Amino acid sequence: MFDILNIIRGKCPNCEKGDIFDTRGNPFLFRMPRMHPKCKNCRYTFSREPGYFFGAMYVSYALTIAEMIVILLFVKFLLGLGNLPAFFIIAFTAVVSSTFNFRMSRTIWIYMFRKKKITGRTGA
User: Fold this and answer.
1) Which CA distances in Å does 86 have to 31, 80, 112, 116?
2) Residue 77 DSSP label
3) Residue 83 maps to a domain
4) Does residue 94 or residue 121 have the better pLDDT?
5) Which whole number is the average pLDDT over 54-72?
6) Could you tell me if residue 73 is inside a domain?
7) What pLDDT is stored for residue 78 in this prediction?
8) Per-residue b or e along 35-58, where b marks 16 or more CB atoms closer than 10 Å to that residue's CB
9) Which secondary structure element, helix H or strand E, spans residue 12, and what is its range?
10) Per-residue pLDDT, 15
11) 117 inside domain
12) Residue 63 vs residues 1, 41, 66, 87, 116: alpha-carbon distances, Å
């Protein structure tokens, strides 16, 4: 349960205090979110290797499809709008939610493959 809250808040998977992203991004100004290379609190490295976040594209795709299905059901069946208005509403929503999906997909990907470091222990 705590992992879900930390994913939504974009917190470090290791210390759960530092932020993963420096900026939130703005789709209307064409600015994508910017990630910290390491956690400011515990120095946990977010990117493991070059190409590490290619898999996050699949997570982003799944998030987008889920959002679009919910919006399509809402627009077509609850509001009773036609195909063309539904298309424009879905397209607008896809643009508006692009930075959110970017952040969520990368955060979910980091949490899926995290390696929790043990801190505060001394060797015997």
Assistant:
1) 26, 9, 34, 44
2) I
3) yes
4) 94
5) 92
6) yes
7) 85
8) bbeebeeeebebeeeeeebeebee
9) none
10) 87
11) no
12) 19, 29, 5, 18, 25
Question: Which tokens belong to 73?
Answer: 């059901």
Q: Average pLDDT, stretch 37-58?
A: 87
25 or 105, which is more confident: 105
Give the H or E element holding residue 108: helix 98-112
Please provide the size of the chain in residues: 124
List the domain range (segments joined by +) for residue 47. 2-112
3-state secondary structure of 31: strand
Paired tokens of 15: 């210390």
pLDDT of 119 reads: 56
Instruction: Extract the tokens encoding 118.
Output: 């043990």
Name the pTM for this structure. 0.79
- Give me 86's structure tokens: 């539904």
Number of domains observed in the structure of the chain: 1
Q: Report phi then psi at 50, rounded to 5.
A: -60, 135
